[in-house]
């Protein structure tokens, strides 16, 4: 892959990762609830979900989903209901739910699971890979070039959300966030439910 084309790919992946949405909300919530390691766990598992979509795209399954509107609609609706469930869960979580430490292993495991699921169930990611990333794939592309696309998408996504988790968990920032966690829960809950409604109404 020419370097100029790879730069375009990296820029597209960076814009997709940086744009605010349910992924950021999940990383934020787990960083607040479980600290830096929980936030990083959510970030890295989210990157694995992104890598899976990138892998499906370079295999040509993105085009298959685009040609099967009923399949695509089903995936989109499933993602919307999952976003709504996360949003309701965040709205119902009070200050004590966020600040009370659970077992570290359980918190990291939960963070990793939700990070993966929000990536796999995020309609924005489905649209992103079907509509944008597939433009960088050609039928005669080598295996190494396809692997580079997958690795680029994973590293940029995981790197960005890891930076978010590390930055939010800094000793000067996290106490303030914890003190206002009930408002952050409400804001992220409204954001997630709003995104779900937006997807469902088209």
UniProtKB/TrEMBL annotation:
One of its GO terms (cellular component) is plasma membrane. Keywords: Cell membrane, Membrane, Transmembrane, Transmembrane helix. It is a multi-pass membrane protein. It is found in: Cell membrane. The chain crosses the membrane at residues 41-64, 71-88, 116-136, 143-163, 183-201. InterPro entries: LeuE-type. Pfam families: LysE. One of its GO terms (molecular function) is amino acid transmembrane transporter activity. The keyword Transmembrane applies. Coiled coil: none annotated. This is Threonine/homoserine/homoserine lactone efflux protein. It comes from Aidingimonas halophila. The lineage of its organism: Bacteria, Pseudomonadati, Pseudomonadota, Gammaproteobacteria, Oceanospirillales.
